[in-house]
Amino acid sequence: MSTPAPDHSALEARIAADPRYAALVRDRQRFSWLLTAITVAVYSGFISLIAFDKPLMARPIGGGTVSLAVVLGAAMLIGTVAICAVYVRRANGEYDARLADLLTSLRS
Amino acid sequence: MTRSLVRSAGLLLLLGWATGANAAIAGAVQRQPTNWTAILMFGGFVAITLWITGAAARRTRTVSDFYTGGGITGFQNGLAMAGDYCSAASFLGITSQIFNDGYDGLIYAIGFLVGWPIVLFLVAEKLRNLGRFTFADVASYRFLQGPVRSFSAISTLFVVSFYLIAQMVGAGQLIQLLFGLPYLYAIIAVGGLMMVYVLFGGMRATSWVQIIKAVMLLCGATFLVVGVMAHVGFSFEALFAKAVAVKTKLALESGLSAGDAAAKGRAIMGPGGFIKDPISALSFGFALMLGTAGLPHILMRFFTVPDAREARKSIMWATVWIGYFYALTFILGFGAIVMISFNPEYVDAAGALRGGNNMAVMHLAHAIGGNLFLGFISAVAFATILAVVAGLTLSAASAISHDIYASVLRKGAADPTKELRVSRITTILLGISAIILGVVFEKQNVAFMVSLAFALAASGNFPVLVMSLLWKGCTTNGAAWGGAIGLLAAFGLTVLSPVIWVAVFGFNQAIFPYSSPALFSVPAGFLAIWLISVLDRSPRAALDKAAYPAQRLRSETGIGVHEAAAH
């Protein structure tokens, strides 16, 4: 099951040789690693703040009861959804369009 | 007291549960009286889902129907993923954790959510483009099938077992509280219904059970949050201020000085004892974050959508709903502090929750909406457990029937009818095992069992998936043995850590001092895969590396993708 169907092989060879394919893969890969790095860094930072400076996190914001920890926690929830939206928008938009162009031009 | 005893005994008799229920009645003093609303609402859920299962069963003829359910959209799959992921363990466990300790529960929730971008960025589209039924299809794509699939299947069974135990224990506690049924009966009911869904309806029934449950859970939790916010005048500041006042008063009553009590009250607004040292904190965080990308029952859901585009949309929606759900649980936990802490109906003299230490949100539902709403939320929580265990069982069954039986034992040439039969027999065996495990682990804290499953998934499956997808040099031996080393490292370190070595075995001092192994076991998995692959000079290793460009091309373009839709 893991061998590709034979009728694809000619097309696959053309794609592999096309510089637009290499560029697409490189761009998408770079973008996904960048967002991964941001996610890991922000999350590690959040956890480290909790681990290293609990008094800071517990400090109320603006004289009320709501603490820095609650605000940052809410920002983490919203930010996580937002970073997914950024990737899906670009991948389903720009990258998919480039892939579709590439496939159309090579199939014709 | 006596009157309510007599009443519950009468209800049990009416229901024909009298045989063997005597012991339960003796222990039922603290329970809620049997709640007919809950039973009716849950009965309604079961009726609808069984009807769907029946309809699905008529259309489940091929193995593809069974494993993928014939294809759904990204939006539907996102809801189903949320339904699969927002387990009863997190609904009951996180709200109760916040009820007890305040802020700490949110740390759990954020860790659960932050795994989704990682799944999206690193594995989702490639997974969809390469795989067909299980994540092992992808992990073993260019490798010798036997070793890599065997590793994946064993790893799946480990991860699923721990996750399943948590769900079953939650189910038992919940039904005990709600129906006044003995724990054992509750577990058997959950195990039995789950077997029916998966056996007859396969993935199609499982998906719809999860979608319906997700909608019910999100609506129910939203309604509860509106109730909480109405109670505090729709002000977050008021909610938190009241919660701090309640905790301060409780501390004063326990005999602390005014200053200490005020400090203890304020402590719920910041991180507390949940994270003790930085290493444990990071380690635990990485287990949650990377574990999501290695959970077999979540990864399996990508094969229910037609292509990578819909796979990405699935995650987008899943993240939206899961993030929303965790925001709700945070508010519900604080709402519970404010609304149920001083009510002897919900909390005993020692300040512990009646009915078990995971029941904060159930009591809150009763405080806000009375028996009617307790009934609804109970039905939702029960539905949640069913939906999650059905997904877990399906992924474990496919690991055995598709990965072990069809791909390893029959070398990919299994008779589809026989493969379907094997998956159904496996489902029955898994259902029985789940019941037994649920009984054995009755007294464990359920949220902790889930984090163990995440650590295993992060250390075994995740490195194997990433290395096989993104590194040309990965070989059969590297993936199979390296993954096994990561898994064993996570398991071994967990056994040696305080949560098992001290709490279960009763030793004084843990050999491994941190509460989660991931910070060590995930790198161990990656390192082992790399090292074994680099040292691998076998002829097979050369084949593995040579097959990478073709795999890469398909993973990036989706050419030759297996469609989920049955034609």
How would you explain this protein's 3D organization?
The complex is a heterodimer of chains A (about 110) and B (about 575). Chain A is built from four helices and no strands. The two termini of chain A are about 30 Å apart. The longest helix of chain A is centred in the last third of the chain and has 40 residues, at about 70-105. Chain A is an all-alpha fold. Chain A has one domain. Chain B is mainly α. Chain B has one domain: Sodium/glucose cotransporter (Up-down Bundle), CATH 1.20.1730. Helices cover about 75% and strands about 0% of the residues of chain B. Chain B is built from 24 helices and no strands. The longest helix of chain B has about 50 residues, at about 360-410. The termini of chain B are far apart. In chain B, about 60% of the residues are buried. Mean pLDDT of chain B is about 85; it is low at about 1-30. Chains A and B meet through helix 1, helix 2, helix 3 and helix 4 of A and helix 7, helix 11, helix 13, helix 15 and helix 24 of B.
* Count of helix runs of chain A: 4
- The succession of helices and strands of chain A, N to C, reads HHHH
**If classified by CATH, what would the architecture of chain B be?**
Up-down Bundle
Low-confidence stretches of chain A: 1-6
Order of helices and strands of chain B: HHHHHHHHHHHHHHHHHHHHHHHH
Could you report the average pLDDT of chain B, rounded to the nearest whole number?
Answer: 86
CATH topology of chain B: Sodium/glucose cotransporter
Biggest sheet statistics of chain B? none
Poorly predicted tracts of residues of chain B: 1-30
> Would you state the CATH class of chain B?
Mainly Alpha
Helix content of chain A: over 70%
Number of domains of chain B: 1
Shape of chain B: globular
What level of helicity do the residues of chain B show? Answer: over 70%
Number of strands of chain B: 0
Percentage of residues in strands of chain B: under 5%
Radius of gyration of chain B: 24 Å
Mean pLDDT of chain A: 89
Q: Give the count of structural domains of chain A.
A: 1
Distance between the first and last residues' Cα of chain A: 28 Å
Q: Separation of termini of chain B?
A: 61 Å
Protein name (chain B): Cation acetate symporter
Transmembrane segments (chain B): 36-57, 105-124, 151-171, 183-202, 214-234, 279-303, 315-342, 372-401, 422-441, 447-471, 483-505, 511-535
Family (chain B): Belongs to the sodium:solute symporter (SSF) (TC 2.A.21) family.
Keywords (chain B): Cell membrane, Ion transport, Membrane, Signal, Sodium, Sodium transport, Symport, Transmembrane, Transmembrane helix, Transport
